[in-house]
Amino acid sequence: MIIGVPKEIKNNENRVALTPAGVAELKKHGHEVYVQSTAGIGSGISDEDYTGAGATILATIEEVYAIAEMIVKVKEPIASEYPLIKANQLLFTYFHFASSEELTHAMLESGAVCLAYETVEKADRSLPLLIPMSEVAGRMAVQEGAKYLEKPMGGRGILLGGVAGVKPANVLVLGGGIVGTQSAKMAAGLGANVTIVDVNLQRLRYLEDIMPANVDTVMSNEYNLRQLVQHTDLIIGGVLIPGAKAPFLITKDMLKLMRPGTVMVDVAIDQGGCFETSHATTHQDPIFVVDDIVHYCVANMPGAVPYTSTLALTNATLPYALQLANKGWKKACRDNEELKKGLNIVHGKTVYKGVADAWDLSLTPVEDILGKVIVA
To answer: Is 179 labelled a binding residue?
Structure first.
């Protein structure tokens, strides 16, 4: 198979979808890999590193899309890439369709096969290609939250861990999944008082057992949230419904209950955000203020630490990319239920329920697609 790796062009996105080690592994299996010039430079990978592993360097993004049967990316295509995508071309990347109607319709019109990292799902319901970036984002959320709590950045002027004789900050973490767990560990390690809320009592019991003494667990409901936000300095939103829009746990009217300068970090912004007042921001312009509350809603947080993020992501994606390349997308998805759940849009049809529900689209059972004879 011919595999293309374009340079990421989303604002301040410095990750790359394939490392030289990944190139070498794909070459070992007989595949051709084309990488856009300087695609890896933000992650500390040179063109020479790629050619040394067997890749061919192409000068432009147009050349990469034109030659490739499978495009491997990190972030969803943006508008300038839409015309480059070909019918029957396989795109393997993060899509987060439920947060963008424009992207959804563009991919439906393209006729491409869109296999989303974020909905590849194991039998235990874990999301293996989302986990590494959730780990990075969860840890980064505390770093960024601590920074924006500083007065010159618009926050209340609170040191997360406090000092002798002065209480530490109160941190509220929404969701006890990967993001929430990593956020809580980081905030607790810095000395903050942390509260994790979740609707899953079994998960809360687990977190209660593993977390340090300065982390409390509370059942998530509107009443409890309204009480908690009144005394919280930093709120981190890490709720997730795979492939679907995130629920609004913090509504606009709740902002009036908070103290001015409270900081909210919406890690769920890729899926539409879990704060009603959220909208996606960039590393270039990361925050905005509503009712004296600082909102940090960067949609590609791990892009700010690309060296770590690229290695963490490609460690997880390469085994799946190899299956797709070795077998073709149809056979790979027939053989592997995890990959099958990654299919979101195929040849102009929506095959993932969360995406169909988000934009009121008709849903085609993925089995109908995999059962038909379609040239990949």
So the answer is: no
